[in-house]
Design brief:
The complex is a heterotrimer of chains A (157), B (145) and C (401). Chain A has three helices and seven strands; from the N terminus they run αββαββββαβ. Chain A is an alpha/beta fold. Classes of the chains: A alpha/beta (157), B alpha/beta (145), C alpha+beta (401).
Chain lengths: 157, 145, 401
């Protein structure tokens, strides 16, 4: 495929490319190559970012960027996987490359605690502002102590 | 005096003004509540009207499990309603917590926060069931609730 | 220096607003900021503690209006994880329910946006026509909202012959009503004044901001999951992509009405070509463990591209379920679209992307120059916008010429 040769030419063997049986392409890269790989993909015509998925597998936090190239009656998808540390989770922001990452990066920060360098106005998206620091529900070691307090029976009107 | 108060009660239960509040529901119950005001079910013939502000309302219709961000809003809306006021809870999410029990961001049943007068169970309940709840509410008002 | 106005319910009756804060100067909007999360119930975390089959019924309640799209997308992804292929008749029934859902969702939206611009008659007409679709769906599945027809490996119920005959009647009825609505929308002066030229989103911006669904197709962007990545049986149906070059709210209305007509055609094709006999599901039991796998599933919901990512570790419960709804993808476009418009244009613009997130709040309008902060309820904003347009429609019409 065209995109495989393009990436191997630019980044050599730091990029590992596989295609699974449902015809989805997966690329595994180290974190510091993220911006360059996504910029190369954007220039090759992959201009639609579906979303940014984050998940915690117990050892590290994985981030997957799903990009799509649409053309007449057909499409091509590529999924870029990278990962970051659990204790000091930072990742570079891709806001200049894909403007729609504004909401996706805020969601990953809210639910998994990954800070994106270079994002404009990184704050929580879904949970209220008054939750305690370090409250990130999708982590595997999350203890669900609820911050929601219901009034006691006597206070009910 | 009793004739006057009987007249007041009769007039009150024949013209209930409703404020609909969504505290985080999936919209299934909301579209069934809105269906009541469309030509097939048409509850305006019973005097029930939808208003846009809680300051004009007699009945508060609540849907959804109460989520973190909507807690303050619910309290504020309830305080703004003038007396006498009633609360009708529509859907399983607000009655018992429903499918979202154990989640970190939902309070569960609405009666931890407000005094509820009628519960309608269903996911979502049929419009006929919601009309039945209003009928029971009118009976309750008649008996002096 | 600007007054912050939190905009509450945008859908007047659905009380389903996105809580947006608008910064204005006089009557014109200069900036906007979204504030969402009122409907965040923690579904992705709950899904990790339930089995693959229990999740079918949890994920159906993500949204009550497009429930079959969510459940069908999850079932499609789970079938890729379990490595099973549903039989052909099951795919026909699944696609039929998807298209019926598109009909009822577009009729609902049409009624709501007509209410937003003050045209209540059309709201009552469309919601009355919608009852025909709800009755049909109740006959097929037993419920009006939340039909629960999908399962991993196929569908749960079969369709009777008499119901198929009724389906053709309903499809013809809705197609004729849609043609009637298209004639009204293109000829009524009141509708054209409030929607033509409003909420402009150019084609380049729509591609740059990754807009999805009919909002993008109304700006001339030919992208549709059924057209570019056909799934289920869409590559065999007479499906044709609908798009328009108007780039404003009027174009979004026209695109959705034409999509209803195309959906009616697809429904009739499905009824005529459905295999008469056949299995409706594969033998996958709730105690089967899937292999270690990950899968991606995309479906064209009535509002746009719906995306699911599923990961399995070989267990009875999934490791990760990631959902991205189409309205989240279109929020960035709203911020761009409202700039330069009047406050009175806010209801149709925001309702134009068909937001499917429930929020409730008030509208807050921040006046940048006067440092004045006003908090309005949705009802007040709606009344204000109708009164303002009655006073100023001549000026606006001259401006937009």
């Amino acid at each position: 495929m065209g995109i495989k040769e393009l990436l191997e030419e630019k980044f050599g063997d730091k990029v590992s490319f596989t295609v699974d049986k449902h015809n989805e392409a997966w690329i595994n890269i180290p974190l510091d190559l993220l911006r360059d790989v996504l910029k190369a993909l954007r220039e090759a015509g992959f201009d639609h970012l579906s979303t940014i998925t984050g998940y915690d597998d117990g050892e590290k936090i994985n981030l997957i960027y799903h990009v799509v190239k649409f053309y007449d009656g057909k499409s091509e998808t590529v999924n870029v996987i990278t990962s970051t540390d659990r204790n000091n989770s930072v990742a570079p922001s891709i806001l200049e490359i894909y403007p729609s990452a504004l909401v996706y990066e805020r969601e990953v920060y809210d639910l998994l605690g990954v800070k994106f360098d270079g994002h404009v106005g990184l704050k929580r998206l879904l949970l209220p502002e008054n939750v305690p620091e370090g409250y990130h529900p999708l982590r595997k070691d999350f203890k669900s102590g609820s911050y929601l307090v219901s009034p006691k029976e006597g206070e009910n009107e | 005096m009793t004739i006057l108060s009987k007249l007041k009660k009769w007039a009150f239960k024949r013209s209930l003004w409703v404020f609909h509040l969504n505290t985080g529901s999936c919209n299934g119950c909301d579209i069934e509540i809105l269906d009541l005001f469309t030509p097939r079910h048409d509850v305006e013939r019973f005097g029930i009207k939808l208003v846009g502000s809680p300051r004009h309302a007699d009945v508060l219709v609540v849907t959804g499990p109460i989520t973190g961000k909507s807690l303050e809003r619910v309290k504020r809306v309830y305080e703004q309603m003038p007396e006498p006021k009633f609360v009708v809870e529509v859907g399983t999410c607000g009655s018992t917590g429903g499918l979202f029990q154990g989640s970190y961001n939902t309070l569960g049943s609405a009666d931890k926060l407000l005094p509820v007068d009628a519960y309608v169970i269903g996911c979502p309940p049929r419009p006929e069931a919601i009309i039945d709840a209003f009928a029971k509410l009118m009976e309750k008002i008649e008996k002096g609730g | 220096m600007s007054v912050r106005i939190p905009i509450g319910p945008i859908h007047p009756m659905l009380k389903e607003p996105i809580n947006l804060t608008f910064y204005v100067e006089g009557e014109t909007i200069v900036d906007a900021e979204p504030n969402i999360g009122f409907v965040h119930r923690g579904i992705e975390k709950l899904a990790e503690n339930k089995t693959w089959f229990q999740n079918l019924y949890l994920l159906e309640k993500v949204c009550g209006i497009c429930s079959s799209s969510h459940q069908g997308c999850y079932a499609q992804g789970a079938e890729k994880v379990f490595e099973v292929e549903p039989p052909e008749k099951a795919l026909f029934i699944r696609t039929l329910m998807w298209e019926l859902e598109r009909l009822h969702s577009h009729l609902l939206w049409l009624g709501v946006i007509m209410h937003e611009i003050g045209f209540d008659t059309l709201f009552m007409y469309t919601w009355r026509d919608r009852e025909a679709v709800m009755d049909l769906v109740e006959m097929i599945s037993g419920r009006r909202v939340g039909y629960s027809i999908n399962t991993i490996g196929g569908v749960r119920r079969d369709i009777d012959y008499n119901i198929l005959v009724k389906t053709i009647d309903v499809a013809n009825f809705i197609a004729s009503r849609a043609e009637y609505y298209e004639r009204i929308v293109l000829s009524e002066r009141t509708i054209l004044d409030r929607t033509e030229g409003v909420g402009y989103l150019s084609k380049a911006d729509a591609i740059r901001l990754n807009t999805v669904g009919p909002t993008a197709r109304a700006s001339g962007v030919k992208r549709d999951v059924r057209y570019n990545m056909p799934y289920a049986i869409y590559d065999e149906t007479p499906f044709d992509i609908v798009f328009d070059d108007g780039c404003d709210v009027l174009a979004r209305i026209i695109v959705r009405i034409r999509e209803m007509i195309i959906s009616a055609e697809i429904i009739k094709w499905i009824v005529f070509n459905m295999p008469k006999t056949g299995e409706i599901k594969q033998k996958v039991t709730p105690f089967t463990k899937p292999p270690e796998n990950e899968a991606i599933s995309r479906v064209e919901a009535p509002r746009g591209e719906l995306f699911y990512y599923l990961k399995s570790k070989g267990d009875l419960k999934p490791e990760r379920v990631k959902i991205r709804t189409p309205t989240l993808a279109n929020i960035v476009s709203i911020i761009h679209m409202v700039k330069g418009h009047y406050i009175a244009d806010i209801p149709p613009i925001v309702a134009g992307i068909d937001p499917c997130m429930s929020c409730m709040d008030r509208v807050v309008i921040v006046d940048v120059n006067k440092e004045k902060k006003t908090v309005w309820s949705h009802e007040e904003l709606w009344r204000y916008s109708i009164k303002w347009y009655k006073k100023n429609y001549l000026m606006v019409r001259e401006e937009r010429r």
